[in-house]
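For the sake of transparency, this paper describes our internal protein records without simplification. The record that follows is passed on verbatim for readers who wish to inspect the format:
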Amino acid sequence: MASLVVGIVLAAGESQRLGRPKAMVELGGRPLIWWAHHHFERIGCPSIVVVHPTIEKPAKTWLPTATIVVNHQPEQGRTGSLQCGLQAAAKALNSDRFRVLMAPVDRPGWNAQVVGRLLGGTASVCPSSNGMRGHPVLLDDEAVHRVREAHPDEPLRNLVDFTPVDMEAPFLWLNIDTEHDVAGLLEHEAALLTYFGQSEVI
């Protein structure tokens, strides 16, 4: 198993149902793209942030220390975006063997403690709380290789079998897709900010 680990935040979706970039939805005065990068940064994990062309400039403004990669073919879906991140990660790490923590920007219900638990795994794993699986997910180096070699529109679930890691993670259910989902997110804003602030790595 490779010892190198990189975090990849996926924010290249076209947000057609929401009608505005999901990555720029704010929580506590900061966009979701900032929070995902922040959680990785807290555990010392270098971040690759894959964005839609329309948000490249604000992403660079909010994340001056992150590597920003533009996916010019977002219609290829999540696997295509992840492949963009993997290419940038291989270049940044100067290695083709590494593990990846992958976090879709529209699944914001996690913190650095969740990441810490995942890093204790020896294979490809995902968080699970009360029987519900969520994100981010950890891909081992073999899974990374499979994704890199796959067709860009192949669903990730067809490429990687994630083993659940049980933990206390009460907000894994959050999935930002519509304005109704944004309203639900904001209803839990105070609790989420507390949850993020208490994210001590174990």
Summary: The longest strand covers residues 5-11. Residues 135 and 184 are 18 Å apart (CA to CA). The mean pLDDT is 92.
